[in-house]
Amino acid sequence: MSWIEGGFQRKLIAAYLGLVLAIVVVAGMYLLVSTNGPRVSWPSLLIGGLLALAAAAILGSFFAHQVTRPIAEMTAVARRMAEGDFSRKMPAPSSDEIGHLGRTLNLMAGRLEDRLIELEGERAKGTAVLDSMVEGVVAVDGSNRILLINASACRLLDASSVAAAGRPFLEVIRNKEMLDLLDRTLTEGTFARQELRIFTPVQRVLQVHASPLKGRAQTAGAMLVLHDVTELRRLEMVRTEFVANVSHELRTPLTSIRGYLETLLEGGLADRKHARPFLEVIHKHTERLGRLVDDLMDLSNLELGKVALHRQPTVLAEVVRNATTIYGPQAAKQEIKLRAELPHDLPHVLADRDRLVQILINLLDNGLKFTSKGGTVRVSASLTHPTPNTLHPAVDFVEVAVHDTGIGIPSQDLPRITERFYRVDRARSRELGGTGLGLAIVKHLVKAHGGELAIESELNKGTTVRFTLPIAPLGKNLV
Ligand code: ADP
User: Fold this and answer.
1) CA-CA distance, 322 to 221, in Å (whole number)?
2) Start-to-end C-alpha separation, the chain
3) Selected residue with higher pLDDT from 98 and 378
4) Which atom of ligand 1 lies nearest, measured to the CA of 437?
5) Closest CA to ligand 1's atom 7
6) Whether the Cβ atoms of residue 403 and residue 377 lie closer than 8 Å to each other
7) CB under 8 Å to 24, separation ≥6 — which residues?
8) Which of 126, 283, 305, 475 lies in disulfide reach of 313, CB 3.0 to 4.6 Å?
9) Which pLDDT tens digit goes with each residue over 173-186?
C-alpha cells in the first residue's frame, strides 16, 4: 500500500486510471462483439464486462475514500476549532498534500490558540486594571447599550457587571441626567463634564466625564468616567459653614463691645453710675472673644496634629480631684452636688496630665452649666476589658464618665453634638459663656490619647459623657 500513500495526486490518478481501465475493458468487449469476433459469446462477454465494472467500482470507491476521508476528518476538527476547542488536532499521517495541509492547519491552530490565550490574558489584565480603579467606568456603544462597566461603577450605581453587558443604559442605570449627557456626547462627538446627584443605593455627588469613543468614521460609542466627590463637597460645605460660624461668633461680642464703647465715648463715661456696668459688659465680651480665639487655636492645632501629647503614667483620681476642686465653689454657688466616685484600685492611665485636666474641665463645665439647682454632677471610672471590636484589642482601658442630672440633649441633636459650634440652644450656650467648641476639643483630645468618646442623654433627665483612656503598661494600685 505504500505506493498508494505516496501522494494525493497518485491516489487521484489511480482512481482515474481504474475508471478508464473499466471503460476501456467494456468498450473493447463491445467492439469485439459488434465485429462478431471468433468464439466470443454474448453471455461470457456480459459476465466479463460486469466483473470489469465491479472491479473498477471497488477500485474507484477505495481510492475515492482514501481521498475524501482525511478531508472529512479535517472538516470535523476545523469545526471544533471554530467553536474554540483546540484539543483535537488535524489528522496528518501521510506525506502527501493532504498530510501537508493537515500539519499546516495544526501549526496555524496552535498559533491561533496561543494568540487567543495571549488575548485572554490581556483582557483579564485590562479588566483587573479597570476593576481596581477608584473611578467608575462605563462604556456604551452607538445605540446606548452597555459594552463594559467596571467594579467601581457597579458599586456607585448599584449595578451588576455581568447582568449589565449588552443591555440598554437606562435599564441598568436609571439616571436620566446621565443618559442625557451620554446622548449629547454621542450626537455631538465631543467631551462633556457634569456634576450630578444620585440617590440610589445611597445619596452621592458624582462628577461625570463623558468622552466619545471614535470608530473608523464616526462616533462608535461613549465612555463615562465617574468620580465620587461626595466627601469633597461635604468638606467644602463644612468649611463654608465653619467660616460663617466663626464670623458670626466673633461678630456677636464685637458688636456689643462696639455698642457699649460708642455709648461711653458719646458721654456715657461721665455717667459714673452706668459707666462701670458698661465696662464690665465690655470686659465680659472681651473675655469671651479671648476664649473663642483660644479654643479655635486649640482645635486647629489638634486637627493639624500640631499638639504634642506628653503621655505618661498618670493617677486618674488625682487629676479628677484637681478638676473637681476647681469647680467646687461654682457647684456650691449653683447648689449642685459635685462628686467623684472612683474605685481605689484603678491602674495608672497613659495620659497627658494637662490635657486630661482640660477634658475634665470642659465636661464638668458643661455638666454644671446645664444642670439646675439641686442637681448632681458626678465623675466615675471603671476598668474596661477589650472586646474584639475595639481599636486597640491588646490594651485595657479605663472608662471615665461624667454624669449629670441636667436638662439633657434631644436625641436628634446627639449625632452632631461634637461638631464645631453645634449647640442645642445657641442663645443659651452663649449666655452661659460657651463657645460651642468644648465637645469638639474633648473629642479630638480623647482620640489623640487613643480613646473613644460616647455621649448618652435623656431629655430632662440628664447626660452622661464617657471617654476611655489606655492604661499605662506597669502602673497599678497607686491612688
Ligand atoms: P458649649 O460651649 O456651648 O458648652 P460644647 O461643645 O461644650 O459647647 O457643647 C455643645 C452643646 O452641647 C452645648 O451648647 C449644649 O447644647 C450641649 N451640651 C453639652 N453638654 C451638655 C450637658 N451636659 N447637658 C446638656 N447639654 C449639653
Assistant:
1) 72
2) 110
3) 378
4) 6
5) 438
6) yes
7) none
8) 475
9) 888 899 999 999 98
Residue 153's closest CA among 191, 204, 187, 110? 204
Give dist(CA 418, CA 302) in Å, integer. 14
pLDDT mean over 208-221: 83
- Please report, for the chain, how many H helices and E strands are present, in that order: 13, 12
Higher-pLDDT residue of 238 and 357 is 357
Q: Of 297, 344, 354, 282, give the one whose Cα is nearest residue 323.
A: 354
Report the alpha-carbon distance of residue 367 to residue 455 in Å, rounded.
12
* C-alpha closest to that of 222 among 194, 189, 176: 189
- Kindly give, in sequence order, each residue whose CB lies less than 8 Å from that of residue 361, ignoring residues fewer than 6 positions away: 323, 326, 327
Q: How far apart are CA 346 and CA 383, in angstroms?
A: 7
Cis ω for the linkage preceding 201 (within 30 of 0): yes
- Yes or no: say if 417 and 320 are a contact pair by the CB < 8 Å rule: no
pLDDT value at position 34?
66
Contact 362, 441 (CB under 8 A): yes
Predicted pLDDT of residue 433: 77
Atom of ligand 1 nearest to the CA of 404: 23
Pocket of ligand 1 (CB under 6 A): 366-367, 370, 404, 406-409, 417, 423-425, 429, 434-440, 463
Burial (CB count within 10 angstroms: exposed 0-12, middle 13-18, buried 19+), residue 448: middle
Phi-psi region of 166 (alpha: psi -120 to 50; beta: other; left: phi over 0): left
Among 361, 409, 443, name the best residue to mutate to test ligand 1's pocket (greatest count of ligand atoms within 8 A of Cβ). 409
How far is the CA of 412 from the CAs of 369, 423, 424, 458, in angstroms?
21, 12, 10, 11
Residue 336 Cα to ligand 1 midpoint, Å, equals 18
Strands (E), 371-452: 376-384, 397-404
Contact 15, 59 (CB under 8 A): yes
Pocket test for ligand 1, best of 429, 432, 459 (most atoms within 8 A of CB): 429
The C-alpha atoms of residue 153 and residue 198 are separated, in whole angstroms, by: 12
Q: Hey, what's the cell of 222?
A: 461613549
